[in-house]
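Regression test attached.
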Amino acid sequence: YTGKSSTQLLSASIRKFQVKDFQSIPSVINEDISVYDAICAMFLEDVGTLFVINKNSELVGVCSRKDLLRASMGGQDIHSVPVHIIMSRMPNISVVTPDDLLIYAANLLIEKQIDSLPVVRKKGSSYEVTGRITKTTITRAFVALIEDE
Ligand code: ADP
């Protein structure tokens, strides 16, 4: 008998979860596409957040559902406004790496009050997007805790 309480065992298993074990495939758009095309991409890919890259495939921003709603309500022509005008941009983007702990990612989602995080790989002074972590990811990990018992 190890003498460990069930709470200690549970927290030990949570601490073993890493971003790379739970990340999903990211939906990425180019910064030059229109707000209208970003809305189409969001519907087609069935995601709540799109990661925005430039022509060198570097992460430049994040575009959420409400970013697109706000842009659509502004009275501008959503067919001509490019998405880089309305997105949240670097360096103010929260990111995680594959080796980060999932609990670190979960804390970032709560602290920053956001729904998703790009999983990135460093590429010189910029980032390449390789995955995504969302609130759904955290729900899946929560369920896995019980199923792996
Ligand atoms: P929504 O805006 O649809 O509620 P979020 O809560 O994820 O979706 O986004 C809130 C705001 O934070 C948006 O303006 C969005 O661009 C921005 N945002 C989303 N994810 C990130 C991130 N990983 N880093 C920085 N800002 C983000």
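Expected vs. actual: identical. The chain has seven helices and six strands.
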